[in-house]
Amino acid sequence: MRIMALDVGEKTIGVAISDSLLLTAQARPTIRRKSPSSDIELLRRMAEENEVHQILVGQPLHMNGKESRQSQRIGRFAADLKNKLDIPVLFWDERLTSFAADQHLEEMGLNWRQRREHIDKIAAMIILQDYLDNRPSRSP
Q: Is 46 inside any structural domain?
């Protein structure tokens, strides 16, 4: 059983999936958004193929912790995802993950075009790894 994390944007969805021991996050190819129904169908197939039992959605909050318009849109998408996939969906604070992903890719020597191509999946991977490292049920 695995956890899938999503960094949901207007044009793309970054995806990461945990290993079966729930220790590490691995980035998957970024999804180019087409329509809510086709996006959800693609996520359904990925969830089934990878035996996903939980979906973690990055919640874009303002720096003061309040919801943004984007977090409300993502909330509606997540509710639709939960209803259609019948898999538990949790939210995880994603503040500064895109910045951290960009920094990581820059340190790897990628130019801005290359960074832009990979930033969403790396942000999803950071969201998932943060969750895995901090989840309450993790043993010391």
A: yes
Contact partners, residue 96, CB within 8 Å, separation at least 6: none
- Residue 50 inside a domain? The answer is yes
**Each residue's pLDDT tens digit, 46-63:** 999 999 999 999 887 656
pLDDT of residue 60: 78
Mean pLDDT of the residues in the chain: 85
Dihedral, 76, 65, 117, 88 alpha carbons, nearest 10: -40
Amino acid occupying residue 110: L
Q: Are 8 and 77 in contact (CB under 8 A)?
A: yes
Q: In the chain, which ranges are E strands?
A: 2-8, 12-18, 25-32, 52-59, 89-93
Pick the closest to residue 120 from 58, 54, 45 (CA basis): 58
Query: What domain range is 126 assigned to?
Result: 2-134
